[in-house]
Amino acid sequence: MPSAVFSTTEAVQLGQFVVQAYNLSSGAAFALPAGYSLVATLYADDITDDVPDYKVFGFIARNGSAVVVAIRGTEDLLEWIKDFDLILVPFPYADAGDAEQGFNGFYSTFRTGNTSTSPRVIDAISQLVADGSVQSLWIAGHSLGGALVTMLALDLAANKVYVNPVAYTFGSPRVGDKVFAGTYDNLVASSWRIANLNDIVPQLPPQFAGFVHVDAEVPINSDDHTRQTIVCWHALATYLNTLDPNVPLDGGCNP
Q: What integer is the mean pLDDT of 241-252?
């Protein structure tokens, strides 16, 4: 279980980094909070669209001794989850049970360049923290980005690259089996999995197929905040607005 206390303020601040990950990917205006500079742009082969090409999925930013990794999701995640075979295979980067094979494949392409030979994200973080100057490492992601956050945090902690990352996810699916989740919970002490009550993505892949969520769940309910649709329940803006009403909803999600 997490040893730290969940912070709504911290969650919303990190959620805004994930908003910028979406902006960076889409070509919209990209702006980091004051004091932060861009360290690396993160890419992955977006296998959800059946096209073998690397796309921008996030970034690493730094402000002095603080580092933030922000990872976006994908609009095609729900359809992709419905179509996959729900096969659990060993997580190849640590002795940590099994993870869904599609997520394993996706994570294997997570790099700091847009080719299969570019450095892995964990290797870039390893170089960043090698001199001991990084005192805080936050990893945040939405939707599929939440699955990538979970795998990255486990990879970092299990391989002692950075043993105490702080993970925040929004609308993350289940990633692996009971052993995977238990290993994660034991190694990643500060982890917060924010799940909207009616959002279908955190309910997938299903428990009957052997999938188990990592700790610690932070349940929220957007019913009084947003339009009642599958898209709005899962939208990152809905999550942030439910945590902090000052954050605007997506235009089509106003109740």
A: 95
Residue 52 tokens, joined: 């073998």
Residue 247 exposure: Cα atoms within 13 Å on the Cβ side: 22
CA distance 157 to 59: 20
Say if 1 falls within a structural domain. Answer: no
d(CA 21, CA 60): 10
Cis status, amide bond into 216, omega within 30 of 0: yes
Tell me, what's the pLDDT at 79? 63
Could you please report the per-residue DSSP string of 106-171? HHHT-BSSSSTTSPBHHHHHHHHHTTS---EEEEEEETHHHHHHHHHHHHHHHTTSSS--EEEEES
What is the number of structural domains in the chain? Answer: 1
Domain contains 110:
yes
Residue 50 pLDDT greater than 80, yes or no: no
Residue 50: CB atoms within 10 Å: 9
What is the domain range of residue 48? 8-253
- Stated pTM of the model: 0.95
pLDDT digits 0-9 by tens, 74-132? 877 766 676 566 899 999 999 999 999 889 988 999 999 999 899 999 999 999 999 99
CATH code of residue 106: 3.40.50.1820
